[in-house]
Design goal:
2 domains; Rossmann fold; 457 residues; 15% strand; 14 strands; 6-stranded parallel sheet
Length: 457
């Protein structure tokens, strides 16, 4: 769910180019030495950002990336009456279009930054921007977040937050040093079903939580081979690594159900991938024989399955499949000693609810509807964005800033959820060996409060 903006020309992206492009922001952030997952490169006594409230204010937003995803987020921001003061995109026409939407909403035309891929550095330096949102390809999230925090801005990035373990530590370090929030826009945590089930769990309806499963099962073959949008950059990720490239949509809600970072944490994972066949078969069928994409070598298996063990002994299965025919599903399963819920379609079974052990519907549990959906659900569905969850996410984020509340998900969630990607790659490369997951909170997960999104909003 990221924008095509800031994408390189097809076949031109490389680790070397990315590192050259982000040297300035890497220097700002400072170096974090690579270390084994179980060892923290940061001091244990560094002041935490856990449960730290936003500075109470009406945020002035700078949005980086106004392609498909960025423009959708802009619509939700405007519907929630956010003040948009700056827009950045490497495609000037996209920035102009987005600026027109801001003006049509009755606001002053925002300042535009369209002079190349590094022009975002000028946006984050603006004195009248205090909150930055980045809706760009994955590998730009870290340098943009680091630059924003270095200039004293809170920042939210699209998913996954970052794509390397080193960058997970970098955003944690920068957030703690600058005392600025860095969070991930995981919209799936704000879906109607996800928030209702979350409140049921915290009311005790599921008993003790035991296991869960999340996934991103989505046939993206047409999109990956498109000459626009994510086709300009996302397919390249399948040539670089074999693992779970996009874990957070399925993982985020399950992590919330299990109070990960707030009484439990990811301890270790194992990961395995099927053979890669889908993209080869698709291009053979759809592309001309002389198309240069016929020469690409895809290494990411068509289905990746990762299994996470938590410190409390719970298990989480996380799946990723975007290269084969499959109806859309995030699975969204959670089970406890008293009940189990599974989505797509939504169904629930509570111990003793019937005699034939058949699934029931969640229609009878509307008393657990989240207050955000009760208050804002009608406008959320009108504004749109994945069934309304995008608006609920943006509304809630702005509410936390406007009221001076801690964010629902913070930099430690962004790091831990995103780390599953590179750690799964490491496990696959080592023959599905167990890989320890870093404790980005350095022990503070044991005494943290439950996220407010579970109990109130």
């Amino acid at each position: 769910m990221t924008s095509e903006s800031f994408a390189p020309e097809p076949h031109s992206w490389s680790r070397r180019r990315f590192m050259q492009a982000s040297l300035a922001t890497a220097a700002i952030a400072g170096a974090v030495e690579t270390s084994p997952a179980q060892e923290s490169p940061l001091p244990a006594d560094r002041e935490t950002m856990a449960d730290v409230p936003f500075q109470k204010r009406e945020p002035r937003v700078g949005l980086i990336g106004v392609g498909g995803r960025g423009t959708s987020l802009l619509g939700n921001l405007l519907a929630a009456n956010a003040q948009i003061v700056a827009l950045c995109d490497v495609v000037k026409e996209k920035a102009d279009h987005a600026a027109g939407l801001v003006v049509a909403a009755g606001q002053k035309r925002p300042e535009l930054f369209t002079d190349g891929p590094q022009h975002f550095e000028s946006l984050v330096a603006k004195s009248d921007v205090d909150f930055v949102i980045a809706a760009t390809p994955w590998r730009w999230h870290a340098p943009m977040a680091l630059a924003a925090m270095a200039h004293g801005k809170d920042v939210a990035v699209e998913v996954p937050a970052v794509v390397s373990l080193e960058d997970c530590w970098r955003i944690v370090r920068a957030s703690e040093e600058t005392r600025k929030h860095c969070l991930m826009l995981e919209n799936c945590c704000y879906g109607y079903n996800e928030t209702l089930v979350l409140r049921m769990i915290h009311a005790g309806e599921f008993g003790e939580i035991l296991y869960g499963e999340g996934a991103y099962l989505h046939d993206l073959r047409d999109e990956l081979f498109s000459h626009a949008g994510e086709g300009l950059w996302r397919r390249a990720e399948h040539t670089r690594a074999d693992g779970n490239l996009y874990p957070t949509h399925g993982l985020g809600p399950v992590a919330n159900y299990m109070r990960i970072q707030r009484g439990d944490r990811f301890d270790h994972l194992v990961s395995m991938s099927s053979p890669q066949r889908g993209l080869d078969a698709y291009r053979k069928q759809k592309l001309q024989p002389d198309d240069p994409r016929q020469r690409e070598r895809y290494v990411c298996g068509d289905l990746n399955t990762s299994l996470i063990k938590t410190a409390a002994g719970r298990t989480i299965t996380v799946k990723h499949a975007v290269s084969t025919p499959h109806p859309y599903s995030r699975i969204n399963q959670i089970a406890g000693t008293k009940a189990i819920f599974e989505d797509y379609p939504p169904r629930i079974y509570i111990d003793g609810m019937n005699k034939d052990e058949a699934w029931g519907t969640i229609d009878g549990y509307k008393q657990y509807q989240h207050p955000l959906w009760a208050r804002e659900g009608e406008i959320a569905q009108k504004v749109g964005g994945h069934g309304g969850m995008d608006f609920i996410m943006i509304y809630r984020l702005l509410q936390c800033i406007r009221e001076g509340l801690p964010p629902d998900m913070d930099v430690y969630d962004a790091a831990a959820w995103s780390a599953v990607g590179p750690l799964s790659v490491e496990s696959v490369a080592q023959g599905s060996a167990p890989i320890e997951v870093p404790d980005f909170t350095r022990g503070k997960w044991q005494s943290r409060e439950i996220s407010r999104i579970a109990t109130q909003a």
